[in-house]
Design goal:
Layout (H helix, E strand, L loop, with lengths): L2 H6 L25 H6 L32 E8 L14 H16 L4 E7 L23 E4 L3 H9 L9 H14 L6 E8 L38 H13 L2 E8 L6 H11 L10 E3 L2 H17 L2
Parallel strand pairs: 1-2, 1-4, 4-5, 5-6
Antiparallel strand pairs: 2-3
Helix pairs in contact: 3-4, 3-8, 5-6, 6-7
């Protein structure tokens, strides 16, 4: 499915997987090699390459091997829907807890990983008479394109846009996917880090009489709510968007904040589709408290750096 087809399926004008790399980069039988042991304590930022054996086509014996880091870029896809004003299990506002976790994690990797941002919905996405779908509005481009040393710019943008609106997850992933498609990089590692506290919705083409409702039953009742379709669960389109991103070589981490428990099966499916699901249950990264959020986000960002 192409990006244009996915966009037509949803809102018009559309705009966190096992820790570490997929598989041990060391060849079988080299787990006790002395040079591997020497590298085990090396800083991640130097781009450790395991399994390099002097004298086997490399530098002369006694000469340090030449190490190179692959480029890495990650687009943060951040849910800023109205429910992010709610609290974590330890009583901290989710939005504030997320920003605090990002403020700790991003500066640690910004020199090694080009970081970009897309938020959903876009700022100003409030409901109103005659314009109920405005709660699902999305930018057609990234809030910030990936660049090194971008932590401060990302946090400034997020602090200036407090939560509001609905949860157009699929459209936000499509925005990130289109950017990656327009900026191919065969030699670099590329990631999406999706943080959300609820189920994806905002697809006006869904039938509220038969869909799974992401809110109270009345919110999907057309006789009560004229914008009922946008409250339907938009799981199929979201999974399709994440799957398409993966097919172009971009892996997605899915982090679920407190409030996503009722739709944990959907977030598990999203994590599996993204190719970076946890080995444990749930498959997505659960962040129900401020402490959980800081720990899981740190795990994700450390994993991205390790994969360089």
């Amino acid at each position: 499915m192409e990006w244009s087809a996915l966009s037509r399926a949803g809102v018009p004008g559309l705009a966190l997987a096992a820790l570490g790399c997929s598989g041990d980069p060391r060849p079988p039988g080299l787990t006790t090699d002395p040079i591997d042991a020497a590298f085990d304590d090396a800083p991640v930022s130097v781009g450790v390459v395991r399994g390099v054996i002097p004298g086997r086509g490399g530098p002369p014996s006694g000469t340090p091997p030449s190490l190179t880091c692959r480029r890495a870029s990650a687009i943060l896809v951040i849910d800023r829907s109205g429910s992010m004003r709610g609290d974590t299990l330890d009583g901290v506002e989710k939005w504030g807890a997320l920003l605090a976790a990002l403020d700790t994690a991003l500066p640690r990797i910004e020199r090694d990983v080009a970081l970009g941002l897309v938020t959903f919905p876009q700022p100003g996405s409030r409901g109103g008479a005659g314009a109920p779908d405005s709660v699902c509005a999305l930018r057609t481009t990234l809030d910030l394109e990936p660049q090194l040393n971008a932590a401060s710019a990302i946090l400034s943008r997020l602090r200036a846009t407090p939560p509001e609106g609905a949860t157009p997850t699929a459209g936000a992933v499509e925005v990130a996917g289109r950017w990656f498609a327009d900026h191919p990089d065969r030699d670099g590692e590329r990631y999406v880090v999706l943080a959300t506290d609820g189920a994806p919705n905002c697809n006006p083409s869904l039938d509220p009489s038969s869909c799974i409702c992401t809110g109270a039953a009345s919110s999907c009742n057309p006789s009560v709510n004229p914008s009922a379709p946008i409250n339907c669960l938009d799981d199929d389109r979201t999974l399709a968007a994440i799957g398409l991103v993966r097919r172009q070589g971009v892996l997605t981490y899915v982090m679920g904040l407190n409030g996503a428990e009722a739709f944990s099966g959907v977030l598990d499916a999203m994590a599996n589709a993204g190719g970076r699901a946890r080995a444990a249950t749930p498959r997505f990264y659960p962040a129900n408290s401020a402490t959980d959020l800081a720990r899981e986000l740190s795990s994700i960002t450390s994993s991205i750096v390790n994969c360089r």
